[in-house]
Amino acid sequence: MYTDVHSLIVTVCTMPMENADQQVLKQLTEWVSEGQASWLCTVVKTWGSSPRPVGSLLCCNSLGHLAGSLSGGCIEEDLLEKLQAGSMARDTPEVLVYGVTQAETEKLGLPCGGQLQVVVEPFPDKKHLPVLEKLVSRIEARQCIERTIDIATGDMTVENKQRFQHLKFNGEFSNTTIAGEKSMSQTYGPRYQLLLIGCGQVSQYLAEMAKALDYHVIVCDPRENLMEQWPVEGIQLITGMPDDAVKAHANDPFSAIIALTHDPRIDDMGLMEALTTDAYFIGAMGSKKTSENRRQRLQQLDLTDVQIDRLHAPVGLPIGSKTPAEIAIAILAQLTALRSEKGKAVKADYRKLPA
User: Fold this and answer.
1) In this predicted model, what pLDDT tens digit does every residue of 38-51 receive, in sequence order?
2) Same domain, 89 and 137
3) Residue range of the domain that includes 182
4) Contact partners, residue 136, CB within 8 Å, separation at least 6
5) Measured by CB atoms within 10 angstroms of the end CB, which terminus of the chain is less buried, N or C?
6) pLDDT tens readout for residues 117-136
7) For residues 196 and 207, is the Cβ–Cβ distance under 8 A?
8) Residues paired with 220 in a beta bridge
C-alpha cells in the first residue's frame, strides 16, 4: 500500500551527481582554500576535429593532481609539465594553442586537423577564493553565474544570470600567439535534470540513456518492493510520493519531469504538482485515449487550461516506438530537440503529429 505514506520519503543515493564543471570548480576551490598553488584551464576555441568542446574545464595543482579534461590525452600531460616547470602562467593567465603543426598534432594525439586554444589561469594564493566559493555555491543552488576574466591582468568579475550562455572569448589568433586585448566570459550553471515518476522498464532504459547525455536522473516511486529491484547504478532514488519529490527536487527551469507508471494514483499526483513548477518539460506516457482521460482528470484538480496545456502526452517524438528502449529513445529525442533553439521554435508542432 502506498496511499498511506504521503508524508514518508525515504531517499537512496541522496547526493546528486555533480556535473563536470561543478566537480572541477569545487576541486579547485578546495585546493586554493588549502593554500595549494593551482591552475584552471578552459578550452576557448577549437578548429577541425577536437576531442572536447569549447568550455571544457581542467584544474591542476603544483603536486600534479588533476580534475576534469581538455583532451583525454597527452595535452594534459604536456600542460602539467609546463606548469610544474614554471615556464608559463606563473602570475597572470596565458593562452596556449595546441595542434598548430602536424608534428604537434601527432605528438599530442589530436584528431586529424584538430586544434585547441586553452586559457590557463594561475591561482597562486587565496586572492580569488571568494569568487570561487560564490561560483560553487551558485551552481550547487542550481542557478547560473557568469565569470569574466581579463586575460592580460587576471582580474575577474562575476554576475548572476538567469540562464546559460555560451562562452565568449576575445582574442585574435595569429600563428602560435594571441594578439590584442583578450578576455573570456563563461557561464556556469546547473546540470539538466530528469525526474522520472515510476521505476518500470521504460524508466530503466531512459535513466541509462539520459546518464550518457549528462542528465542528473532522479527516479521516484512509492512502491518500495519495486524500487528495491532497481538495476541502474548512479541514479538518485526516492521512495515516496511524487508530488513531494517534484516540489523538493525539480522546481526549476533545468528540470524535466516525466510520469511513466501507468497508474493514475501515482502519475496524476506528480503531474498535479509538476504543472505548477518552472520545469522546462513535463510529459506522461500513454496512448492518445489514456492521455485524454488524464487531461480530464487534471481539469478536476484545480489546474488551469494553460497549465494542463504544458503537458506533453503522449510523451516522445512519434517515431513508431513500441519497445521500452524505443520509447526511451523517442522521449530523449524530444527533450534534445526542445533544448535547442530550433526545437523550442517548433515545440507546438509536436502535438500535431500522429502518435
Assistant:
1) 999 998 887 755 56
2) yes
3) 20-188
4) 22, 25, 26, 29
5) N
6) 899 999 999 999 999 999 99
7) yes
8) 197, 238
